Request: fold
Amino acid sequence: MGTPGQLGKFEQTVLPHLDAAYNLARWLTRNDQDAEDVVQEAMLRAFRFYGTFQGGEARHWLLKIVRNTFYTWYEKNKRHAQTETLDDEVMQIPGNEPTPDEVLVREHGAQAVQDAIRGLPREFREVLLLREFEGYSYKEIADIVEVPIGTVMSRLSRARQHLKNRLSATAIGANV
Reply:
């Protein structure tokens, strides 16, 4: 499968990003066991194709493999996965509103924010995670999820608006 030298280089280059890989898989699958399965398969793929890695950002390369592995896994298991749809008619893209990150955590607590993120459609969760938790630029996210930058921006904007709406509804329900 590879030489001992290749294994050492792989471990040095890729393994430091295992937490980021698991974090992405966990948010996409919404399940610890499924996330572990996806990461395990992604790591096998990454090792198998490590010879094609041409340097650069190893975390970026690994997260792209994790995402692609997730979608392969999802296609095989979609009977058991929760169905998600995007309703463009209901969601509105906000104007120049501030990002909800700090305000949401302060007003609603970390658990409510995590629950709201888990409730986002997969396409929104992945761009939000890559931007807010992993710190990727729009261009890097576009490369990882293989969509145009405008789509990344739209999804991120919609994800933030969706979070704001969910957390506002939760806060209203808690105050009643």
About this structure: Residues 120 and 159 are 7 Å apart (CA to CA). The helical segments are 4-13, 18-29, 32-48, 58-77, 101-118, 122-133, 138-145, 149-175. The chain has two domains: 4-77, 101-175.
